[in-house]
Amino acid sequence: xxxxxxxxxxxxxxxxxxxxxxxxxxxxxxxxxxxxxxxxxxxxxxxxxxxxxxxxxxxxxxxxxxxxxxxxxxxxxxxxxxxxxxxxxxxxxxxxxxxxxxxxxxxxxxxxxxxxxxxxxxxxxxxxxxxxxxxxxxxxxxxxxxxxxxxxxxxxxxxxxxxxxxxxxxxxxxxxxxxxxxxxxxxxxxxxxxxxxxxxxxxxxxxxx
Length: 209
Hints:
The longest helix is centred in the middle third of the chain and has 6 residues, at 130-135. The protein has one helix at 130-135; strands spanning 5-14, 17-27, 32-43, 50-51, 62-63, 68-84, 93-109, 111-115, 121-125, 137-141, 152-166, 176-190, 199-208. It is elongated. 3% of the residues lie in helices and 60% in strands. By secondary structure, the protein is an all-beta fold.
């Protein structure tokens, strides 16, 4: 069976985070397809480590030194080429893919609950008081609801390549594992951990279903 178009939904685990995507495909020949995609993801630093306050085990865990969550919304355009079709309903189709596009990055301040040098309990971000943020007694994170009204926009671009292995028994439905690599570049430096160097480039691998 050969179809003129496809719609795919997927989730992915990355070497520095996670994401989800939707992809639309329009076949231009028997082996070639043009694709359009929307991807939502979060980039994390490899040195991030969760801690739990020993004085209050019921508080949210926190990541010491984390100053921002970094989220991305990506619009991509690309091509897919069928390297090998399924020989039968139990076969596997192998598809090569390449995409590039624009990325809208968003930095959200990371909040923690602290007790400062005066014994006052506060919920602060690094930008409120950097000294207290890094040197106070920490009880937990400030929660996911904090900081959304302080988002900062960071424009960028990306390129992604990979291989998709479609093992679905029926051609009408895509069931596939995708492995690949991608490179993101942002026009302004991105800071996620206070003790790490800011950077523009993010290189990662991914596995998607």
